[in-house]
Amino acid sequence: MNANMKRRFVFCLGAMLFAGTLAAQTPVPEWQAGVDKVKSLIKTNPEQASDAAGELLKGKNKKNVELVTSVARAYLDAGQLKEAETYLEMARKADNKAPAVSVLEGDIAFARKDIGKACQLYEQAIYFDSNYKDAYLKYAQAYKSASPSQAIEKLNQLKAIAPDCLEADKELAEVYYATNRFGKAADTYAKFIDTPVATEDDILKYAFALFLNHDFEKSLAVAQKGLQKNARHAAFNRLVMYNNVDLKRYDEAEKAADAFFNASDNADYSYLDYRYHGALLSALKKYDQAIEEYGKALEKDESQVDLWREIADAYELKNDYTQAIAAYKKYYDSLAQDKKTSENLFQLGRLYYGEGTSSDTLSVQSADRMAALQAADSVFALVAEQASDSYLGDMWRARTHSAMDPETTEGLAKPYYEKVVDVLLAKNEPRYNSALIECYSYLGYYYLLKSDYATSKEYWNKILAIDPTNATANKALDGIK
Length: 481
What we know:
Layout: H1 3-24, H2 32-44, H3 46-56, H4 65-77, H5 81-94, H6 99-111, H7 115-128, H8 133-143, H9 148-161, H10 166-178, H11 182-192, H12 200-212, H13 216-229, H14 234-246, H15 250-262, H16 271-283, H17 287-300, H18 306-317, H19 321-334, H20 342-356, H21 366-386, H22 392-404, H23 414-427, H24 433-449, H25 453-466, H26 471-480
Helix pairs in contact: 2-3, 2-4, 4-5, 4-6, 5-6, 6-7, 6-8, 7-8, 8-9, 9-10, 10-11, 11-12, 12-13, 12-14, 13-14, 14-15, 14-16, 15-16, 16-17, 17-18, 18-19, 19-20, 20-21, 20-22, 21-22, 22-23, 23-24, 24-25, 25-26
């Protein structure tokens, strides 16, 4: 192709594309400028607006349903319902079976908060023209809060006659999102999210729906896409932090947290923001900062009592058992009675046990250790009483008494380990084998110290029956021989 021909080809192609663009555009009615003038005058000069509308609707224009309903809508949008009804009456006279007229009357009823009447009129519009999309959409918008199921049904009817209707997908996604059906919401947002129909708010809700549906990877990608358009968008920065925390990408989460808390516009922080930030800082082993963030979360919403448990976890991770126990007690004491389960009580005992067996001899003195172990035993005794069908209360009482008697000279743990053996043998389940081995190991060692070698051998052999390669049992039996 020579240069001349190439220039002509490009020119023709450009002309075709330009012509196609013009053809694709919806033509603006010649009367639209008049309607726009009425709109601008309604609030600034109502009399002139009325005169302009009267001038616009002279002669044959009175029969132009699209024009008359547009003028009515100008008044409706401005909250001038009586004037809107005046032009509605004119539209009715022009064509009382036009679906646009029924939809307009429905919109006026909706503005008067008469949802039932509004939806009857939208149904009437569909009766006049079953392909009139606006009536389906308005019906769904009216019912999406009052009756989401009816809204969904109507939108599915629209999808049946217009499968490619993106506006229907948009409305469906909003209904699913508002009713916490986040999986369906995410699937529906995906159908139109890359089209001009999608707004920034749609993209944000799509990202949140994915997050709430635990699709953290995809939610992260959508949120990052949102940040490409506005790097200071608080909600997108929030989601990038949340998703990275849940994906355990803590370095990336830390960068996102910095952007969210220090480089976002109009950020309104919630208790959950501080909670996620606290979890992030705890994962980064910045425990003091984590505790501070959890405290901010409690200031935002003191009803979130689970935060005391997370504060306790952070204190435990920094080996500050005194503060961990104090925080956990606040958590436990704040629970409703039916939530004060043996599992929750057990965690308090575990903290006391942790303090009593801590390797930090500087922070925990000998007397404090014994007091902590005694407290642990009291808690585990309550656990054993509350959950009599479980072995855990007695197992941890055994461990606690073993810690009180580290040389096994008094055999303080013996009765508890024996009780656990009875419970576990009755269960007869392989998943308890490791617990049985712990019990048999203690009892075998106890009888070995008492020079009761026959009984000691019985327990070591019981271990080998479970695990023939157990090094401790084999070594003990070799020593007894």
